[in-house]
């Protein structure tokens, strides 16, 4: 079912009739060149239709276009260089099409462009992010998720002064992350996960508006930057599945808005800062598969919001955080294969949505409680020093080896 192209500038009766005609035909075929009659057109939205064929090489016959939205169609071939001549363009949405050619560097000439979306164009010939794109000094949103980007990021990425959201996830980018990126004052979201980026991450961070950093699933190495501790708006830090080493900086433990801390499967060592997230409403704490030692921070669930505690396969010792005893949001506690000892805070067992508790291969000593959350579906506590009552009625128990 075709939707009418929307327009904010139907200046002429001719254009009005044209749209009626388009509605009557109601058959999206190739790009409707008849629209060229409406040379004053500023706003064209043909998104979510079934248009096929190429975007015409003379698309600049609509020189006043400010919004060109062609997302969710079957446009194929190259994206024409002529798009770079639509000098009034503010918003260019080309995501989810069937382009099987190239992306023109001329897009970098669109000096008024604020929003560019090329995501989910998985048939593009593998391409490098053109350094010309970094001339887009008014661009706020750059989305090129899962669109066959390869090679290195342009070193000039940090010149895109207006950038607020960058999404280049699910590509094959390699090389290092340009240091300029973390200096951008207005940047709030960085999604670079699932690429092949390598080397140390930039240690100097002045992008104080950052709220999400997700650079997980790359080959990044070196220390976690101290400066992340200055990002008071940060809610999500995802560094998992990389080669980060060294200790978790104490400064990160003081972030007031952190909700997700996900650093599992790296080479992190040392102890976790004892005051970690004392003042934030943490929801996810995932540090498994590192070489961390010492205690888990006591305050992980100060606000009762913690949902997942995943810390298995480290060398953690000491007792479980006492705040787990008053942690109504808890759904998962996975701390197997450490050297934890002492009692389990008894309140933990009554968290109403507690689903999985994996504690095998530690030195935990307590008795199991008589009251246990009804929602528990998985409990593994073998190779510990539990004693006493063994509750019944949970689907899968693995208590072997307790003594
Ligand atoms: C409108 O566009 C069609 C197709 O491009 C063309 O044949 C026709 O001459 C145009 N009419 C005017 C008035 O420009
Ligand atoms: C363009 O059209 C699509 C599909 O109808 C719609 O989802 C989208 O919100 C429209 N864009 C704008 C800016 O209104
Ligand atoms: C685009 O920019 C290049 C130089 O960066 C220039 O050669 C070309 O003429 C520009 N095109 C337009 C349409 O402005
Ligand atoms: C691109 O896709 C179109 C439409 O499916 C097809 O006709 C054309 O041959 C393809 N071109 C290349 C280079 O694969
Ligand atoms: C891309 O940028 C380079 C260097 O600034 C310039 O020489 C070239 O003309 C630009 N290309 C286009 C197509 O704008
Ligand atoms: C851009 O594409 C993404 C996919 O990366 C989509 O989820 C998002 O809604 C698009 N953004 C806009 C502003 O259209
Ligand atoms: C583009 O990327 C997709 C995965 O996102 C992949 O399936 C496809 O083979 C790639 N195309 C080329 C030409 O490399
Ligand atoms: C950054 O954001 C502020 C506040 O929205 C705005 O005034 C400023 O122009 C932006 N900076 C750039 C370089 O766009
Ligand atoms: C990035 O990948 C390209 C091939 O796509 C290769 O030529 C280049 O050497 C790689 N660069 C790095 C830094 O690994
Ligand atoms: C981060 O804070 C430390 C002091 O807490 C300061 O020395 C450093 O310059 C700050 N970095 C930035 C980028 O503001
Ligand atoms: C834990 O420490 C022991 C000895 O101190 C060491 O052999 C083992 O490899 C460490 N485990 C991890 C996961 O680092
Ligand atoms: C448990 O946490 C709630 C808030 O989540 C707080 O009001 C209450 O005082 C805490 N109780 C104890 C015993 O710490």
TrEMBL record:
InterPro entries: Leu-rich_rpt, LRR_dom_sf, LRR_R13L4/SHOC2-like. The keyword Plastid does not apply. GO terms for cellular component: membrane. Its main location: membrane. It is a single-pass membrane protein. It is found in: Membrane. The keyword Metal-binding does not apply. Residues 1-28 form the signal peptide. Pfam families: LRR_1, LRR_14, LRR_8. Residues 83-187 form the Disease resistance R13L4/SHOC-2-like LRR domain. Keywords: Glycoprotein, Leucine-rich repeat, Membrane, Repeat, Signal, Transmembrane, Transmembrane helix. This is Receptor-like protein kinase HSL1.
